[in-house]
Amino acid sequence: MRKLHRRPDPAAPVSRQRLLVTAHGVSATIRCLEKRRGFWHFAAEPGALAGFVGRNGVSGDKREGDGRTPTGLYPLGAAFGVREKPDTRMPYRRITPQSYWVDDPLSPYYNTWVEAPGGGDWRGAEHLLDYPDSYAWAVVVEYNMENIIPGKGSAVFLHCGTRPTSGCIAVDEPGLLRILKWLDPALSPEIMIRPERSGL
């Protein structure tokens, strides 16, 4: 994984797929871009999709529990979900009854997926199976996942949904399935999240 606040790494793979999330308050437009001959172009498919960000908008200084989606550029990690693997080339992890994503900043497992029957060493964690609609299918946004900063925010995903989130990005199920079909791990996909009229 790459650092949250990272300088360009000449050894890192160059992304040729990007999801561009432009926030308009709590609503967002999601566009898919492909890099060809050194330039970004809008992909014909899946095209532009309507979505949502955090219930308190977006922020360049996200904090745990603030209801904001972090701005910036981040790698996209594995896909996961309650349901069976969809039509996607992305690595896929099925949620089990023991699947948790830890959001306790004091836990050594902060901002990680843990399989723990009956819970574990934390004061707070998302029991992923409790969100069968949102996490029918989802993709990990690799925010604050290397050199993890406690309290800087956790569990940022691109997931199913038709309303503002607690700090993720949501798109309806058909839209997410189209994105999953388009994503290709060989192209090192990433996501850029920005407010409207941003210079990012």
Automatic annotation (TrEMBL):
Pfam families tied to this protein: YkuD
InterPro entries named among the record's database cross-references: LD_TPept_cat_dom
Single annotated GO MF: transferase activity
Boundaries of every L,D-TPase catalytic domain copy: 54-185
Name of this chain's protein: L,D-peptidoglycan transpeptidase YkuD, ErfK/YbiS/YcfS/YnhG family
Gene source species: Sporobacter termitidis DSM 10068
